Amino acid sequence: MEIGSLLKGKTALVTGAASGIGKGHVEVFARAGAQVVAADIQEDQGKAVVDAVNAAGGDAQFVRLDVTRMADWKAAVAFAVSAYGQLTTLVNNAGIYHPGGVEDETEDGWNRMVAVNQTAVWYGMKAAMPELLKTGNAAIVNISSLYGLIGSPGSLSYHATKAAVRLMSKSAALEYVKRGVRVNSVHPGQIRTPILGNLTAELDAQIKAAIPMGDMGRPEDIAYGSLYLCSDLAAYVTGVELPIDGGWSAA
Ligand code: NAP
């Protein structure tokens, strides 16, 4: 699909960029003309993503960023500004999943989920905001989940964090609505990435059967939604939640 120069002049920082949906964002944003800072804890994989993007004519650089560490965030934002002179766009995508219901989630599991999926989204917005404000025309996309919109049994901490990201996005959208920073959340349904682990054929079939479109999505399906929200086409769009889920949330 031709996406031309929708993000020309933008500099985007994407977290969780070494794999899955984050990798999809780096590839799609670079194709759309953005300068991309790809951030992850997986250094070799992240560098490989950047190398492939640059070999295809894009402009991307890798930075190591553990999203749970504010010091890493400050360094990553500084890196983006020193590399490209500005930061216009932030995609808070890094995330983890593990199952765990009311009784079997552990305190460590709960705290880890909150640290990576929720607190880190605040850290990212906090660390990037001074640079985003300087541009007068910036956008943040926070990757939540369909599981931030609806419940399911056995994934309590994941739902808690993803639901929090939804309202953190709307609250930040209103806080900055007159200061040139738009904030929106994207809610993927089931997307085929390593986070799903090794699915048995039976579970794979069960998941597909639950999706109205009959199949899981691809990372780029999510990145195309973020592409719109981060582009000037969405200049009047802030505080929205965009499910990209093959119709699941409509059912
Ligand atoms: P993924 O393939 O596992 O990619 C996530 C990336 O983030 C990995 O490279 C991971 O590294 C990295 N990461 C984990 N903890 C980090 C940290 N503390 N700091 C920096 N990077 C870290 O997962 P994905 O499916 O692309 O998920 C991306 C986002 O989409 C997540 O927020 C997820 O909750 C959301 N989402 C996914 C789906 C889906 O069906 N795939 C559905 C709804 C929402 P490691 O490999 O070392 O963990």
| SS-derived structural category | alpha/beta
Low-confidence stretches: none
Query: Number of helical runs?
Result: 7
What compounds sit in this structure?
A: NADP nicotinamide-adenine-dinucleotide phosphate
Order of helices and strands: EHEHEHEHEHEHHE
Share of helical residues: 40-55%
Label the CATH architecture.
Answer: 3-Layer(aba) Sandwich
Annotation, overall tally of beta strands: 7
Backbone CA Rg: 17 Å
Query: How many discrete structural domains?
Result: 1
Oligomer state of the chains in this structure: single chain
CATH topology: Rossmann fold
Biggest sheet strand line-up: 3-2-1-4-5-6-7
Given this structure, which CATH class is correct?
A: Alpha Beta
CATH superfamily: NAD(P)-binding Rossmann-like Domain
Largest sheet: 7 strands, parallel
Overall pLDDT confidence: 98
Gap between N and C termini: 28 Å
Concise synopsis of the structure shown:
The chain has 251 residues and is an alpha/beta fold.
What attributes characterize this protein structure?
alpha/beta; single chain; binds NADP nicotinamide-adenine-dinucleotide phosphate; Rossmann fold; seven-stranded parallel sheet; about 250 residues; about 45% helix
Characterization of this structure:
The protein has 251 residues and is α/β, with parallel strands linked by helices. It has one domain: NAD(P)-binding Rossmann-like Domain (Rossmann fold, 3-Layer(aba) Sandwich), CATH 3.40.50.720. Helix 1 links the parallel strand 1 and strand 2. A seven-stranded parallel beta sheet has the order 3-2-1-4-5-6-7, sandwiched between helices. It binds NADP nicotinamide-adenine-dinucleotide phosphate. The site of NADP nicotinamide-adenine-dinucleotide phosphate has 29 residues, from helix 1.
